[in-house]
Amino acid sequence: MDPASIFRAHGGKAASYKFLDDWRLLQSDGFIFDEIIGLGAPEQGIFEWGETRTIQSPGWRSSYGDLESTKYALWNTVTLLLSVIANGERAQQRHPAIFKLPSSFNLALPHFKSRQWSCMARRRGSWYQWRRWRRAHDALTLGDKPLRSFFTDVIPEDGDETTYTEVYRSVQRAVQQQRFMLTKGGYFGWGPDDPFNKDPAMGIGIGDKIAIIFGCSTPLVIRPRGDLFEVTGEAYVQGFMDGEALELLESGFCNVQTLPFC
Question: Taking the CB of residue 67, how many other CB atoms lie within 10 A of it?
């Protein structure tokens, strides 16, 4: 799925760039609006997560609002990556069901059997993906709340199989090759992750910047390299995927920069 067909982080600002130093450097217009200060566990191999490499951020405070507003932002983040389900449609209001998706198949199966959800009952072979991601991230704190506190293992009586199938499929995609991140500005989202890269220095890290580059459909994670920047990869930052960051320019909080990339 092409992010450019779903996201519009540039807010309609056309790309403005040029190559320098015999095409070895790229200058692009945009602006830095945030910084990574906390990280979830990186993926290590196929659906394994390095829980010991979680980096907590005790000082993080939500800019989404109160607990319910933060929870709303979280379900958008977990189910909305690549917008996500079926035909690429954005998550619908019923998809807070993610918070009632049992963390293990053994906990989920009785619910499926009692409701005769035959499709979900056949998911045993892949449920370990969700179980392992939850296990690696349950202790990650969002402010003073561990991630586990947002979830329950009980599917409500009015739950329907279509919703839970869509939610399950979306989280399968969201947790692959993406690393959960917390930002200095009080936001969260996903940064790029390579499950087969064993060098921690090559992945996203604390202090990496998050930028809007005009013409780019998603924010970028970039890393200072002296007077230059290095692109680490595309990011998903909840609340900044449809041009909202341009309000930071209008308010004077951020200024347009010409950013040099190596």
Answer: 14
Residue type, 140: L
Residue in 241, 145, 237, 226 with CA at minimum distance from that of residue 184: 237
Question: 3-state DSSP call for residue 37?
Answer: strand
7 has a pLDDT exceeding 70: yes
Q: Is the dihedral of CA 24, 29, 32, 36 positive or negative?
A: negative
Given a cut of 90, is residue 85 above it in pLDDT? no
Closest of 157, 165, 191 to residue 177, by C-alpha: 191
CA proximity to 196, closest of 78, 36, 47: 47
Taking alpha carbons only, the member of 201, 245, 248 closest to residue 225 is 201
Task: Indicate the Cα dihedral angle 21, 22, 23, 29, nearest 10°.
Answer: 40
Q: Which of these, 206, 210, 214, lies nearest to 234 by C-alpha position?
A: 210
Of 65, 66, 59, 64, which Cα lies nearest the Cα of 77? 64
End-to-end CA distance of the chain: 28
Identify each DSSP E strand in 43-138 by its residue range. Answer: none
Helix H or strand E encompassing 106: helix 105-115
In which element (H, E) is residue 169 found? helix 161-174
The string of pLDDT tens digits covering residues 131-183 is 999 999 999 999 999 999 999 999 999 899 988 998 888 888 888 889 999 99
Judged on CB neighbours under 10 Å (0-12, 13-18, 19+), 2 is exposed
pTM of the model: 0.90
